[in-house]
Amino acid sequence: MQKQPDNTSLMQNEESPSLAEKPPQSSNGGLRGLSPDWFWTLVIFVGIFAFFSIFANNFFTVRSVLALLVQTSTFAILSIGAALVLIVGGIDFSIGAVITLSGSAVVVFATMGLPIWASMIIAICLGGIVGP
Asked: What is the CA radius of gyration of the chain?
């Protein structure tokens, strides 16, 4: 006797829709395709910004905004560099230590009297030598 092929697996494959037949899933609400989480985060941010703009005297001034940008620029530059390392797949826990070493080297060389541009170049080279 010959064994007959099992047709149940073929029938299951014929009945299940392929990936090409599935309609694209839409985002549920939001502003121009943003998810609801991002939408509510934006609403809360705008609300807090409006509150402090009204009730704090010097909150929304040119001087205050510039001070905020200067204070956060260092962390923004460092986080962009760390993000680039992670994007290219160089995930390593020593990144923070190399960033700290390079930042400390800039300060040390600048206080020794070197120009800031020279201190930055030396710190970048030091980070490249020590880094992963």
From this structure: 28
Task: Tell me if 110 sits within 8 A of 119, measured CB to CB.
Answer: yes
Which 8-state DSSP code applies to residue 93? T
The residue with tokens 């609801």 is 36
Model pTM? Answer: 0.41
Q: Are 39 and 30 in contact (CB under 8 A)?
A: yes
**Cα–chain-centroid distance for residue 7?**
50
Q: Give CA–CA dist 18/50, Å, rounded.
A: 49
Residue type, 7: N
38 contacts 30 by C-beta, under 8 angstroms:
yes
**What's the CA gap between 68 and 63, in Å, rounded?**
9
Q: Using one digit for the tens of pLDDT, what is the confidence trace for 8-32?
A: 555 554 555 555 555 555 555 545 6
